[in-house]
Amino acid sequence: MTEIEFSDGPVLVIGSAGLDVVGRAISPLQAGTSNPGTMRSSLGGVARNVAENLARLGTEPILISAVGDDPEGHRLLEETAAAGVNTEHCMIIPDQPTGFYLAVLDEAGNLQVGVDDMRAISAIPAEHLRERRGLFKQAGAIFVDANLPEKTLRTAIALAHRSGVPIAADPTSVKLASKLYPYLDRLWLITPNEAEAGALCPHPVPHADRDQAIDAARHLVTDGVSIAIIAMAEFGVGYATNDTSGHIPAVKTEILDPTGAGDALTAAVIFALMNDIPLDEAVRLGVSAAALTLQASGTVSSDLSLEKLYDELR
Known about the structure:
Distance between the termini: 28 Å
Radius of gyration: 18 Å
Mean pLDDT: 94
Structural class: alpha/beta
CATH class: Alpha Beta
CATH topology: UDP-N-acetylmuramoyl-L-alanine:D-glutamate ligase
Strand order of the largest sheet: 4-1-9-10-11-12-13-14
Largest sheet: 8 strands, mixed
Order of helices and strands: EEEHEEHEEEHHHEHEHEHHEEEHHH
Number of helices: 12
CATH architecture: 3-Layer(aba) Sandwich
C-alpha cells in the first residue's frame, strides 16, 4: 500500500444529510398489516453521520450537504453544528424537503426494508463545489457518498484529485454503488457492505462468506482502490490493500439499531489512518465504532471517543 501523507487540514465531507425514522418490530414481521413495535427519530444521512463521528473523535470536519427550507432542515443544521461539525457550506434548498430515511427492522434489529427521499441532495450543483475549491486544497482528506448527483460527484472527485487529497467514498446503497465505478482508481478508501461490494465486483458477495468478502476487497484494489473494507455486519469486515488482506471479527454486542454503524466504521478508519495508526488497528477501531453505534438509540454514539473505542475492544 502506498503511504499517504496527510496534511493537518480538516476532513471535507460531501453528501447526504437528513432525518432518520426507524421502526423496530417486537415480534416477527407480517407483511401487509401493521406490526407493533418501537419507533425513534434522529439526525441522519451518510455524510452527516460520518462528519459527526469525526467531530466526536476530535477531527475537524466540514460538511457540504443540502437541506430543505423547513423546520427539520434548520434543526439538522443547528444540532449538527452543535456536535462540532462546520455546516457553513451546506445549502438550503427552498423548493425541496429535507431528506428523510425510513427503516423497518425485524425483532432482532435487522434491516428489512429502507426508503429514502434525498431530493434536496440531488439539487446540489457542481458549481457549489467549484466555488469552494479552496476547501479542497486545504483538506487533509475528503469523503463523498454516492447520494450526490453524478455531475456533482464527478466534480468532487476531480477537485480532490487535482488537489492531491486522499478521497474516501461510501457507495451508500446497491442501487447507487455503480456511480463510484468510474472513479475506483482515484479512491484511497472505499467501505461498501457485502451487497454494495457485489454491485462493484463481477460476482455477488454472499453474506457471511469471509473468503469471498476478502476476494471482493482484493478485486476493488485491482481496480485501483488503495484500501477496500467490506462490512459484513455481525461477521466483521474483510479488507485488502496491494500489500495485505485480512478479516477482523465483529465485536459481540446487543443490536439496538444498526442504522449508522457503517458510517461510524468509515469515520473511525479515516480518523485512525490520518493519525498514523496502522491499518489493522485502524480497522479494529472501525469495528469497535460500529459496535458502539449498534448499541446506541440513534445513528451516532453520543459519547464516542478514542478511549471508548479501545475500551470496547477490551
